[in-house]
Design brief:
Helix 2 packs antiparallel against helix 9. The protein is α/β, with parallel strands linked by helices. It has 12 helices and 17 strands. It has a 7-stranded mixed β-sheet, sandwiched between helices. Strands 13-14-17-16 form a 4-stranded antiparallel β-sheet. A two-stranded parallel ribbon has the order 1-15. The structure holds pyridoxal-5'-phosphate (PLP).
Length: 403
């Protein structure tokens, strides 16, 4: 008889965004005439840049010509894209420390299988729900606690009290998920705090999985890469994506950096995480398609860089309008400056799903309930500024009317 991976039974019912979709579709049936404004899921609205489309088309034609056709590519990506990344996004990162992928979700989930099941995992609370889900799927958690979190995970609360900065724990953790700017709070980790985490990881021989999906949105002097912190190359893996900055959510291209300096000491041996990851990719992946990597390379041309900057500025401007508008109405709102996300406090004693339902019912605006990102998020809703400017302005008028 076929048996299932029983750890899947421990997952909460439904992925957060599926539950939101369910409620939104019920709402649409109830109010078919209502003009729904979606500031929820956080998918991008700007299309691909024209020079990216040109590169994609050109590469596709190359694939149809016997002179230029390419079959399987390198499992870790073509050097032309790695070179562009190494030259533009980093200093001192070698090409074989960069792994091209079809998305952060893929890599941040798959990297778990390299590590023993016995590792203790630490996750920011609130955080992007994928970190908890993949930890559960891998079998690293115990039953749900009364507080709503999973046993076996060490949570790092990010609250108004600590300025949404996760604090290093007193206890030992082996695998640490950090995200900066954090989704959902929209708050970036400060240099001093990140330095404490790197120091902690070095002392505890722990590994930081640093999700920098939104680094392109940082305008403050907060670190854009964990490798800006001394000693981080020995303890941190960094994940970056073209999804949100360049509209690649549908095209799929990202990259992961694993420095050679990152070594794991286990069973009396010192092993290179970079080599283990490469070994895994060689078996399990045939890489990202050539046209998509060519499209990503086009982001590093002058035209691509200009378009990227304009796009980020446009989203950031919308985030700022939303931030100022909501604050003017009287809400306590965080994030939105280094990030396309805003973290808005619910009215006193109203929990996040309740406020989500209230806003949907009365303003026809879709947000995301903070509880979906962790127990510490239950008195917040998240807004995404990946929306048309008009939708942002209408949202503000409707919230004014609610007040
Ligand atoms: C923090 C964070 N990491 C990763 C992702 C997914 O990135 P990708 O599209 O590269 O899989 C998202 C998408 O919303 C995200 O918010």
């Amino acid at each position: 008889m076929t048996k299932l991976n029983h750890h899947f039974q421990k997952l909460r019912d439904g992925y957060l965004f599926s539950e939101i979709e369910k409620r939104v579709s019920a709402h649409q049936k109830k109010y078919p005439q209502a003009c729904l404004l979606n500031l929820g899921i956080g998918d991008v609205t700007h299309p691909l840049f024209p020079n990216v489309v040109e590169a994609l088309v050109k590469a596709s034609y190359e694939m149809g010509d016997i002179q230029t056709f390419r079959g399987y590519g390198p499992s870790d990506g073509y050097d032309f894209l790695k070179q562009a990344i190494a030259q533009n996004d980093y200093s001192g990162i070698a090409l074989d420390e960069i792994f091209i992928s079809d998305g952060i979700n893929t890599d941040i989930s798959n990297i778990q299988e390299i590590f023993s099941i016995e590792n203790r995992v630490g996750i920011m609370d609130p955080a992007y729900p994928v970190y908890v889900d993949v930890t559960v799927m891998a079998g690293r958690t115990k039953p749900l606690l009364k507080t709503g979190g999973y046993g076996g995970i060490t949570y790092f609360p990010c609250s108004e009290g600590n300025g949404f900065q996760p604090e290093v724990p007193n206890a030992h953790v082996d695998l640490i998920f950090l995200c900066s700017p954090n989704n959902p709070t929209g708050v970036t980790m400060g240099r001093e705090n990140l330095t404490k985490w790197v120091r902690y990881a070095r002392e505890h021989q722990a590994i930081i999985l640093f999700d920098a999906a939104y680094e392109a949105f940082i305008t403050s002097d907060a670190p854009r890469s964990i490798y800006e912190i001394d000693g981080a190359k020995e303890v941190a893996v960094e994940f970056r994506s073209f999804s949100k900055s360049a509209g690649f959510t549908g095209l799929r291209c990202s990259y992961t950096v694993i420095p050679h300096a990152l070594k794991v000491r286990d069973a009396g041996k010192i092993q290179s995480l970079n080599q283990l990851w490469k070994r895994r990719l060689d078996t399990k992946s045939n890489g990202v398609s050539y046209p998509i990597q060519k499209a990503a390379e086009a982001l590093y041309t002058q035209t691509g860089k200009r378009a990227l900057q304009e796009t980020i500025e446009s989203y950031s401007q919308r985030a700022k309008i939303l931030l100022e508008g909501l604050r003017k109405i009287g809400y306590s709102v965080y994030g939105g400056l280094d990030s396309p996300y805003l973290w808005c406090k619910t009215p006193p004693k109203i929990r996040s799903w309740e406020f989500f339902d209230f806003v949907l019912e009365n303003a026809h605006v879709v947000t995301v309930p903070g509880f979906g990102f962790g127990c510490s998020g239950d008195s917040f809703i998240r807004f995404s500024a990946f929306a048309e400017r008009d939708a942002i302005e209408q949202t503000l008028s409707r919230f004014k009317a609610l007040a």
